[in-house]
Amino acid sequence: MDIVIIILLVLAAVVLLLVELFVIPGISLAGLAAGGCLIYANYYAFVQLGTAGGWITLAVSALTCIGSLVAFMRSKTLDRVALKSEINSTVRSAASEPARAVSVGDEGMTTTRLALIGYAEFGDEIVEVKSTAEFLDAKTPIRVVRIVDGTILVERR
Fold first, then answer.
1. Which of 54, 62, 92, 138 has the fewest CB atoms within 10 Å around its CB?
2. 105 and 132 share a domain?
3. Is there a single domain that holds both residue 13 and residue 64?
């Protein structure tokens, strides 16, 4: 009966270890339970079966854990559950929308300090802008120099 208990504890530890490594990454309840099962199985073997039985259980449990890990990695199970689809869509940039309302040469006023990036007002539109060279304080008059990929580049007027 002692050997059945030890075998069940080692098998539970192996299953929980695989769950911990491949399903729930990080330190979670499954990992702690796997460690607890292994420790208790080996402790139980040393107490109930003696020193020789304990060392044999320790070796078998270590080989079982390593072997199951290697066998699971070599199996096609990970390939079957892996995501294989490609995402080929794009998200419309929020920065590109205001760029349509602002064009090169427009003049405006910064509403926040531009520590290279901040906000500016052009007419009644407030948009995110990027300074080309220097830090600009709030309420500084600016001019649009370029628009690149929805990013509005400005400089001091």
1. 92
2. yes
3. yes
H or E stretch covering 25: none
pLDDT tens sequence across 6-57: 999 999 999 998 888 888 877 788 889 999 999 999 999 999 999 999 999 9
Residue 89 lies in a domain: no
Q: Which residues contact 151 (CB under 8 A, 6 or more apart)?
A: 95, 99, 130
Q: Decide if 92 is inside a domain.
A: no
> How far is residue 68's CA from residue 74's CA, in Å, rounded to a whole number?
10
Structure tokens at 73: 């990695």
Q: Which residue, 46, 91, 39, is CA-closest to 62?
A: 39
User: Are 30 and 75 in the same domain?
Assistant: yes
Q: Are 18 and 68 in contact (CB under 8 A)?
A: yes
Phi-psi region of 139 (alpha: psi -120 to 50; beta: other; left: phi over 0): left
